[in-house]
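Write out the 3D structure for:
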Amino acid sequence: MAFRASAPRLSALFELRTTTIAPPLLTAAKDFAARAAPSAKAAYGDAFVGAFHPDLGGALNVRHDLFRFDSHAHRARAHAAASAHPELSAILTDARGCVTAERSASFAEATAVLTDAGLPGAAAFSPPARAPGDDPVYEMRTYQLKLGYDAVPSFAALYGSGLIHKLRADTTGQSSLVTLLYSETGPLNVVIELWRHASTEGAQRSREASRGATEWRAAIAQIAQGALSFETQTLVPVEGNRWC
């Protein structure tokens, strides 16, 4: 499967904001985030995907906020509207003392890869109905690829060639690929997979099932040759996210 990077740019602009929180104030910051979520949804509308706290893997004293915009102009308007939203502005002002650093990066969605696998992508993603005992979590899998113009297209071609086989092999019904993103500003040649799992135990069952797809394992083996690092984090959505 070819990576259709030359197709007309219809893909949305994603922004991932990562806020570092002073560890003694983490509980207070989580409370602020929960309070802010309804106001953020009101201020940003569908542009606000949601906020997530890491639960396992990497730094825990951070919060990830994911946005999806139609364009850079849409992003500017949305952030301006949020800054003018009285309730959201007040909550964020109160929370400012918890914050030690903020980072932002923009991403595009690898829509061709998702479409070829029969997946809707972030805009149309709808979480499956919860079954009894489900405790949904998200997983952010981050690849830092080698430098070079062909790194992301090569990754996408390999990933797409194996993804359909991975999805077919995983009959557990525990996991859904929400989106596949590649960076455009900030650290470059970064690729992020965002998965939703019915539970952390379900994520493990899904992984074990997908290992039966030899095409997927072969694709990952080739991807590893072009990657500098790989990290995975289990994320818990802040209450009020549309993807809870």
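The first helix runs from residue 26 to 44.
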